Amino acid sequence: MNKTLPTLKSNRLLIRPINHNDCYDMYEYAKKDNVGPNAGWSPHKSLDETKNIIMNMINETLADNNIGVFSLVFKENMKMIGTIGLHNYHEKNASASLGYVLSPDYWGRGLMVEAVKTIITFAFDELSIYRLECSHYDFNQQSKRVIEKVGFVFEGISRKNKVLLNGNRCDTQF
Ligand SMILES: CC(C)(COP(=O)(O)OP(=O)(O)OC[C@H]1O[C@@H](n2cnc3c(N)ncnc32)[C@H](O)[C@@H]1OP(=O)(O)O)[C@@H](O)C(=O)NCCC(=O)NCCS
Fold first, then answer.
1. Which residue from 96, 171, 80 is spatially nearest to 131, judged by alpha carbons?
2. Domain positions in the chain
3. Which of 1, 68, 81, 150 is positioned for an S-S bond with 61, CB 3.0–4.6 A?
4. Fold of the domain spanning 8-133
């Protein structure tokens, strides 16, 4: 595997490796209450927290069992509006999992479907991934729709396998 992630393009997006300057745009959406908790992380409390998180993402790129995080840049205004990441890479099994987040200002336009399709092609064609996984909390209907629309096949439910930030347990569908 190459030591750097490439820049990919879709119709409306540039999908490029995350960088430190993305902290301002990321903080703008990551501090909102309706973003992180749907994906398992707390809203960011400060710009410094966002900077640290991005630093970790950069340090973990192509390290251990990680492939890395791409930023989604909306071509129309060149704003960084979300991320998509390939994680849990297992070389022998040629498997990985996918995670993504989009700024609420851009929800409902099919942008994540566009990004995920581009990453799926990259993962299969360039990384020779054989099995790609994506899961969502049972209440996250928006993510469920993205997963359905890009063509993932439903395999099952892990019952009460996640403890949410509020302490409640929920099912995960994958
Ligand atoms: C999940 C997420 C990436 C979806 O991105 P998106 O680009 O808006 O996806 P789509 O435009 O394809 O919309 C998906 C569904 O969300 C619903 N939706 C769209 N905009 C919405 C809004 N503003 N409020 C509530 N639901 C909305 C629609 O019902 C749509 O389904 P449909 O195609 O059947 O009409 C985005 O909601 C998000 O970042 N959420 C927070 C983080 C998260 O949940 N990450 C995934 C963890 S598994």
1. 96
2. 8-133
3. 68
4. Aminopeptidase (3.40.630)
